[in-house]
Amino acid sequence: MSYLPSVIQIVVGILLLFGGGEFFVAGSVTISLMLGIPQIVIGLTLVSLGTSAPELFVSLISTVQDNDGIAITNIVGSNIFNVLIVLGLSSLVMPLRVKSRLVRRDVPLLLAVSMAVWGMAAGGRVHWQAGVALLTALVINVVWECRTATETAVDNPDEADAFAMDESSTVPVALGKLAAGLVLLVIGSQILVRGAEAAAALLQIPETVVGITIVAAGTSMPELVTSVVAAYRGKADIAIGNVVGSNIINQLLILGLCAAFSGEGLVVEPILINRDLPLMIATTLACLPIFWTGGVIRRREGFLLVVLYVLYLADQLIEVTGGGTLLSTFRVAVLVVVIPLVMVFLVSEVLSWRRQSLRGN
To answer: By residue range, what is the domain housing residue 319?
Structure first.
């Protein structure tokens, strides 16, 4: 059988999702600015929601079609992709200066949410009650962001220029962009899910593998483009905040909605519980020492993140091709060589930053 139709569906679906995400962000931000919503709130909520819209629609469509494998792996895979590839490539373009707010509040919040999700999924199913709890946490977080908006704006006055409204924009135009974005997101997500299912069937590989690699990378393209462009333009807050905010929304909103409307709950494969969810937590945890080192994500740290994702993909590829002995050897090498080297690198970065701080004082 030809793989071309499923490949075309995947590519078309990703392109439609990307266009839909762009329209959704543009319309949402314009309307919010017209309503006088603080810009920092827009950045941490609406822009993150806009770039996460592809994940939202793909996971919801998958849940409705009883494809739990794609629904939850898309969320987990997108979060891993966001930290390792989006942050990694963005810092390769331009070293990213980290605001203290991220280290103090947002990254610890993301870490807590990720650990809670792992705990909810540990039994093999994320029930609707867990979904309601995640959605409740989302509401609390949005209220929290709104209450701290004034404080953040005072601490970071440069963020006032982060979002600018086109003077020619009107409410009808903004609503038109919002509606067009939603239409493209719905159509694109349906096409991408069908293409992913067809590809999994033709390649005779589990849907979870397709969901955590191809679908996750495809739905994360808006985050990647947004953060890389923001880094190139010197807007580190948008580049980093987009990743952290999107990862929080992926779990609180998208997983929460999917679980709440799944009836008997979302089925979680053992491989996700034992490998991918812990990896998602580990990548979030690794952000803290990287963010601590002088408040800058350097190019060498970004390179490390990209390399780790390449190793993650290599593990997936070897497993799919029935690596057997090769897979065992690869994982032992990663455990014995790569992980200790990464730990040594992170510790050395923290110690180097600490020595520089002491000399500066």
So the answer is: 4-360
Q: How far apart are CA 33 and CA 21, in angstroms?
A: 18
Taking the C-alpha atoms of residue 108 and residue 251, their distance in angstroms, rounded to an integer, is 14
Give pLDDT, residue 2: 58
Cα gap 106→239, rounded to integer Å? 14
Which residues, other chains included, contact 252 with Cβ-Cβ below 8 Å and sequence gap of 6+? Answer: 113, 134, 135, 137, 138, 141
Q: How many domains would you assign to the chain? A: 1
Could you say which residues of the chain have pLDDT below 50?
A: 1, 153-155, 157-163
Say which residue the tokens 């086109």 belong to.
Answer: 166
Amino acid identity for residue 67 in this structure: N
Q: How far apart are CA 53 and CA 128, in angstroms?
A: 21
| The pLDDT of residue 71 | 82
CATH of the domain at 302: 1.20.1420.30
Which pLDDT score is estimated for 59? 85
Q: What is the pTM of this model?
A: 0.80
Residue 136, pLDDT score: 95
Residue 186: both structure tokens together = 């719905």
The predicted structure's pLDDT at residue 220: 80
Give strand pairing partners of 296.
97
Q: Where are the beta strands (DSSP E) in 296-352?
A: 296-297
Q: Where are the alpha helices (DSSP H) in 35-106?
A: 39-41, 48-64, 68-81, 87-93, 100-101
Rounded to whole angstroms, how far apart are CA atoms 186 and 285?
Answer: 33
Gap between the terminal Cα atoms of the chain: 68
pLDDT at 251: 92
Nearest to 144 by CA among 184, 104, 193, 190: 104
Write out the DSSP string of 205-258: --HHHHIIIIIHHHHTHHHHHHHHHHHHTT-HHHHHHHHHHHHHHIIIIIIHHH
Query: What was the pLDDT predicted at 231?
Result: 79
Q: How far is CA 5 from CA 9, 41, 266, in A?
A: 6, 41, 29
Supply the pLDDT for residue 135.
93
The whole-number pLDDT of residue 294 equals 59
**Residues pairing with 267 in the sheet:** 125
State both tokens at 54: 């592809």
Q: Partners of 297 in the beta sheet?
A: 96
DSSP class of residue 98?
P
- CA-nearest of 209, 185, 183 to 316 is 209
Q: What was the pLDDT predicted at 343?
A: 85
